[in-house]
Amino acid sequence: MFKSPFLQEAEARGFVFQCTDPEGLDAALLAGPVGGYIGFDLTADSLHVGHMIQIMMLRLLQKHGHRPVALLGGGTTRIGDPSFREEARQLLDDARIEQNRQGILRNISGMLRFDDAPGGAMLANNADWLDRLSYIELLREVGVHFSINRMLSFDSVRTRLEREQGLTFLEFNYSILQSYDFRELNRRHGVSLQMGGSDQWGNIVSGVDLVRRTDARQVFGLTAPLLSTASGQKMGKTAKGAVWLSAEKLPVFDYWQFWRNAEDADVGRFLKLFTDLPVEECERLGALAGAEINDAKKVLATEATALCHGREAAEAAAETARLTFEQGALVQAALPVRPVGAAALSAGIPAFRLFGESGLVASNGEARRLIRGGGARLNDQPVTDENRVVSDADLIDGALKLSLGRKQHLLLRPE
User: Pick from 296, 323, 350: which residue ends a domain?
Assistant: First the structure.
């Protein structure tokens, strides 16, 4: 049983999966403030819902008086983490990496407190030390402590090799560089804890071992479980792609709707992982049944959206949903908006193709099936004929409102 408040709450919320030394970490957290970091490679200009577990772990660390460190992988992004990937990542140039860094900074800055007060979060960029690293120096000082046999035993590497997809020498170096990051953060800033998803376990253990071997210091690793929904779907993936944290890549209303559409069996678990509500309240809401579970889903959606986009935007999304779902109102100001070609609309577009190309469904075939099943509406009116021609004569206040069931809505505006 943990004694430190951070680990007690982390375990109660479901963040604890593996730890290199549970008793030692518990004691260190009780002894005084601990610096803990999580790395984010700059492979896109926004983080997505799959990163929220890591961000919430940093928030929880800060809540209990410790120092969270967000490490941006300006250096390691040039290689790409091969963990459990089926193929090598596309290599990015410096301009794209910097663009991505700026976008991810915007994601993180609103969810952690960055200041000089005790427990204030810190940003770091591993390009600050990796870009100046001599390869020979790395081989002699660090590479000597890594066993190829052990690296081949990592699940992330073994899975890739078993699929006969190969692993480049460039990718194989990633674990060494991540371990080097841990040592640099420990030396420069006294960071003694690395956290991450369970897919990072091998890399984290390697970093702990490197610091022990070269500096004779005790540091710790802690991982959270990789999440899937109750039905087995990978967390954060939908038919429309990743659930981005940036409002420029995914409208706030769509983000709210993602959480509102959670499966009943996931509500209590997601409330504990993705909101700041007390654990007891999360468990109470998650235990609701029947129609009441929908009220819990609205709480989940609003609280999770408030963390990412702010309370005002979350409340606006919740109100839009209320007006749209409960009153059937066309709230154009807040519904997600996507373009449709003005010339094509003027000529007329079959309903199945309009839905298929809107992004609400994955294909025209799926659109046909949903229309035949009575699940599609245009401007709140059922679409009964998949070949029904939609034109600019159907515009209301300059837009078309497409709906699938009661939960998915968007506006199409001609341009």
Answer: 323
CATH of the domain at 360: 3.10.290.10
Question: Is residue 178 a known part of a binding site?
Answer: yes
Residue 246 located in a structural domain: no
245 is a domain residue: no
Instruction: Say if pTM beats, i.e. exceeds, 0.90.
Output: no
**Is residue 237 part of an annotated ligand binding site?**
yes
Judgement on whether residues 316 and 346 belong to the same structural domain of the protein = no
Q: Does residue 331 fall inside a structural domain?
A: no
Residues 220 and 289 in one domain: no
6-40 pLDDT tens trace: 999 999 999 999 999 999 999 999 999 999 999 99
278 lies in the same domain as 208: no
Per-residue pLDDT tens over the stretch 187-214? 999 999 999 999 899 899 999 999 999 9
Q: Is 90 exposed, middle or buried (0-12, 13-18, 19+ CB in 10 A)?
A: exposed
Q: What residues make up the domain containing 274?
A: 251-323
Domain assignment of residue 233, yes or no: no
pLDDT along the chain (415 residues), means of 10: 96 98 98 97 93 97 97 86 54 89 94 91 94 83 79 70 67 84 97 95 93 96 90 68 89 91 94 98 95 93 97 92 64 70 87 87 86 84 88 77 79 84
Structural domain count, the chain: 3
| CATH (domain of 127) | 3.40.50.620
318 with 274, same domain: the answer is: yes
